[in-house]
Amino acid sequence: MSSLKFIPFAGTALRNLFRKPVTTSYPFAPAQYPERMRGHIEIDIESCISCGMCARSCPPGALTVDRAAGTWTIQRFDCVQCGNCVNVCPKKCLKMVPGYTTPDCTKHSDTYTRTTPLPKPAPRPAAKPAAPAAQAAPAASQAPAAKTE
Amino acid sequence: MAKRSIVPFGPQHPVLPEPVHLDLVLEDEVVVEAVPSIGFVHRGLEKLVETKDFKEYVYIAERVCGICSFGHGLGYCQTLEQIMNLEVPPRARYLRTIWMEMSRIHSHLLWLGLLADAMGFESLFMESWKLREKILDMFDATTGGRVIFSVNCIGGVLKDMDETMLKNIVDTCNEMEKELKPIADAFLREYTTESRLRGLGVLPADQAVLAGAVGPMLRASGVAYDARKLGYAAYGDLDLEPITSSDGDSYARCEVRIKEISQSFDLIRQAAAKIPAGPIAVPVKGFPKGEYFTRIEQPRGEAIYYVKANGTKFIERFRLRTPTTSNIPPMLNMLKDCQLADVPLLILTIDPCISCTER
Hints:
The complex is a heterodimer of chains A (about 150) and B (about 350).
Chain A: H1 10-17, E1 40-43, H2 53-56, E2 63-66, E3 71-75, H3 84-88, E4 94-97, E5 109-113, H4 136-148
Antiparallel strand pairs in A: 1-4, 2-3, 3-5
Chain B: E1 4-9, E2 21-27, E3 30-37, H1 57-61, H2 69-83, H3 90-119, H4 122-143, E4 152-153, E5 156-157, H5 163-188, H6 191-197, H7 205-211, H8 216-219, H9 250-274, E6 289-298, E7 301-310, E8 315-321, H10 323-335, H11 343-349, H12 354-358
Antiparallel strand pairs in B: 1-2, 2-3, 4-5, 6-7, 7-8
Helix pairs in contact in B: 2-3, 3-4, 3-9, 3-11, 4-5, 5-9
């Protein structure tokens, strides 16, 4: 017990009286976010191929991809910022950027629509090399299928 | 015999960060018996494993708790890696160790702040949490999140740290170690805090083992048991000795946790010095089939993860035994014959995490 002090914290408390606050006066001073911060998802919609991998692998189911309409929709309030969609995206058109989304009274979603049409898919290798018209067939069948979806 | 009365304690109480309810049977001011009831924050996260892809479930596993989140992700991933015979690259194991130790520092500093708050020592509470902010900032810079990290994946980790980041972490640890000293002094060497904690809620070693105490609670009773000695992640390569104290009272539990913070600084420095170069993850092929148990040392104590997989992308059963589940029976032992005014502090000394317990 000989090592006991009566008020060892007094020095720290007194010094704190003359120190600047450790907190910043947000919103008067802007918030500083580190580069890796998982703030919210952004999409480069023109590079998106509407494959739907992000929507299928989203744990809370916050993403919807409409291939026919060329839209990508995110429920901002359902997204948990896990970054799984960024990891699975084959075109790397999704990215996680710093900064929180703005608060709101109602749950809203953001929809992004692609303006340029999807490039035609590369012809699939024919299952049987004997069929000569196999290369033209997928491209021809793709167009009406996209309309009906 | 004095007249008995029952005082309900919780689920909402200023000292409790999370909801647990106790019926305290009192004789005058002395607690004769405490009857716990939990179930206020049950979310069915274990059941969710049956409907989520096993790779996606990592993100749910780490949301079991806001403080031990890294550990839960790690425990789940390690279990599946064992089932699928995946060899995690050494760099990933070291990165996991560094993040795990940062989690421990963050959890213990949070607990120290709550303890100071429970004693009414507001400025000490602020100082503890001020220090904890630095760890949270480091998490933010390295993983992208302050509380939920999402860096674990089956087969390794998702994000790497470069040399600058590792140096920053070591520098911050050195700086924090200096800043921890006055805080540690205020907890361990100050007359008021010592008189509040010393001799309160004594748990002898035999009782602690019998009641199934884990983590700092067990080590404070003098039992040198630490699941990190099993050598998972990179702990096998690091110099580590469990920190114990023989008194078994609230003061000992506080002392063990403060010393564990210093130990974690040391482990981070060791890991940062030894970290090898190389890949950070191995690809996962196929679906898991089989079952496995894993034990890891969470900041609050030993946690057990069990997974039974059936060869599909959905797992059949996931079970998580959290440290607080094990620490509730010894807590009830401690509460017997204590004063009513000491109950909040005693509950706090087990470092309860009810959200983990109920999942």
